[in-house]
Amino acid sequence: MLQNTGKLAGRTLFITGASRGIGKAIALKAAKDGANVVIAAKTAQAHPKLPGTIYTAAEEIEAAGGNALPCVVDVRNEEQISEAVENAVKTFGGIDILINNASAINLTGTLETPMKKVDLMMSINSRGTYLTSKLCIPYLKKSQNGHILNLSPPLNMNPVWFKNHCAYTMAKYGMSMCVLGMAEEFKGEIAVNALWPKTAIHTAAMDMLGGSGVSSQCRKPEIMADAAYAIFLKPKTFTGNFVIDEELLKEEGIRDFDIYAVDPGHPLLPDFFLDEEPEALAKKMQDHGASLKFQVEKEQVSLATKGPVAEMFKAIEGTITADMVKSTGGIYQFELTGEHPGTWYIDLKNGSGSIGHGSFPGKADVLMSMSSEDFVKMFAGKMKPTMAFMSGKLKVKGDMSLAIKLESLMTHLKAKL
């Protein structure tokens, strides 16, 4: 790992989202030098699924040798950011480094992404970064070596990074465009750079996205902390760069990257927005025998989906005929909960018919909600749709005439399965 130099002693870092994960790792790295750290994050009380608060992070920072100022900050709230900036200046005399780490993620397509999620990502990622930078810049300009570091990716215009999670990509690229613009606007006054990991980083958020088994395919947050530390030691002439953690650390002389791995020697999951195509990434993981539970890209989700529901849909797919499509003329979408949750559809309206994982790319005629266990029972002939509906186990929205057709359709399917 990159050795501490003590050069950040007495310098003040303002870090958004520093109560856990990468933000906290950067804070602890700087604290070892004796830095001052402003923990600007929302979590004042323990979250049931995500560990750590601004106060527990402050305790760790001070135990590591730094000075901490925990501030309750939602980066969507200008008043809260402004108050935290004022408190930072009052407590530590100024701000030398801003790390825009707070971020929201939702990896869904355009039709599947509620506007509430779109607004959240835009407000936290793009607007939050812009606003926090705007309020800190007057103090960063007074620093001898002021830095802004955004945890955002290089601007890769390959459409593959837009097509499956357009809103998230736009929100993250908004952070990167702040780097592009502000680096030029404040050249000679403040260094403005972006940092992005080459591989997936193990955080609580990663566990929520990819499941607990994804950790063996990840590196620890400390690799990002070391890379950030190396950037902070550079002069403000080092600006406008989109830095990849591993590449920078190689330049700093690091050769052993197994020290950063959660499971040394295990194949690693590449991160989003880098040059390799999602299909190639999935193939690479398969070739190395690694788990594909984490969704590399939406079209790869079928590779990661296993279990009785997936097997049932595969069986259904094999029974679909052109005559069935002609006689049915409907699209059924299933929202499943329980042990094998997920969204699936059966298209018995277009072409020769199809099944798919995720929401139908258009408007489904019938929406059916039920547990995955009851779904398997229903298609295995152990439960009739009408009985499931009457008992409340099946909820139906949309064209009821098509929903009624499902029972006779399933009789045909069961004979073929």
Order of helices and strands: EHEHEHEHEHHEHHEHHHHHEEEEHHEH
**Radius of gyration over all CA atoms, rounded:** 25 Å
Instruction: State the total count of DSSP E strands.
Output: 12
In helices, the fraction of residues equals 40-55%
Number of helices: 16
Task: Note the gap between the termini.
Answer: 56 Å
- Spatial strand order of the main sheet: 3-2-1-4-5-6-7
Average of pLDDT: 87
Descriptive account of the structure:
With 417 residues, the protein is of the alpha/beta class. The protein is 42% helix and 15% strand. The chain contains 16 helices and 12 strands. The strands form 2 sheets. It has a 7-stranded parallel beta sheet, sandwiched between helices. It has a 5-stranded mixed beta sheet with strand order 10-9-8-11-12. A hairpin with a 5-residue loop joins strand 9 and strand 10. Helix 1 packs parallel to helix 2, helix 3 (78-92) runs parallel beside helix 4 (115-140) and helix 4 runs parallel beside helix 6 (166-185). It is elongated, with a radius of gyration of 25 Å. 42% of the residues are buried. Mean pLDDT is 87; it is low at 284-305.
